[in-house]
Amino acid sequence: MTIRPDASELLAIARQTLLDELLPQLPANLRYQALMIANAMAIAGRECVQGEPAQAAEHQQMAELLEKASTPSTDVRQSLCRAIRQGDFDTPGAEQERLLSALSAITRARLSISNPKVLGQ
Fold it and tell me: Is the separation of the CB atoms in 50 and 113 below 8 Å?
């Protein structure tokens, strides 16, 4: 059973109401705060839809770099950070390219949630 509207749809409706109906009625000194709230609501809505798949993809990419597919997400991130600090990817070549490609994909996925406008530039 699908419940409508879902969390992301409720956030979108509330955000649009804030922008269309409330923002024009607010005094000028509260406009910036209202726009920050609207922005936070947009990010939260994208997080509802894209957050879990982005996190799963990040874990998969990091695990593949470390060849540890069953490691919990935080451990994979910590292990990858440790490997980078130890210089495991310092030598130019295929492994370094895999790392850069994975980090780029992870960054794009996170930006698509937090600031998708940046990706269009």
Answer: yes
Cα separation values, 37 from 34, 42, 49, 87, Å = 5, 9, 19, 42
Hey, where are the domains in the chain? 7-115
Q: CA–CA separation, 73 vs 116, rounded Å?
A: 24
Give the C-alpha separation, 49 to 107, whole Å: 17
In the chain, the amino acid numbered 81 is C
Side chain identity at residue 19, one-letter code: L
Alpha carbon 31 to its chain's center: 26
For the record, the structure tokens of 79 come out as 């292990």
> What are the structure tokens assigned to 76, written together?
């994979």
Give the C-alpha separation, 119 to 86, whole Å.
31
Alpha carbons within 13 A on the beta-carbon side of 6: 9
Mean pLDDT of successive 10-residue stretches along the chain, which has 121 residues: 85 97 97 98 96 92 78 78 92 94 94 93 74
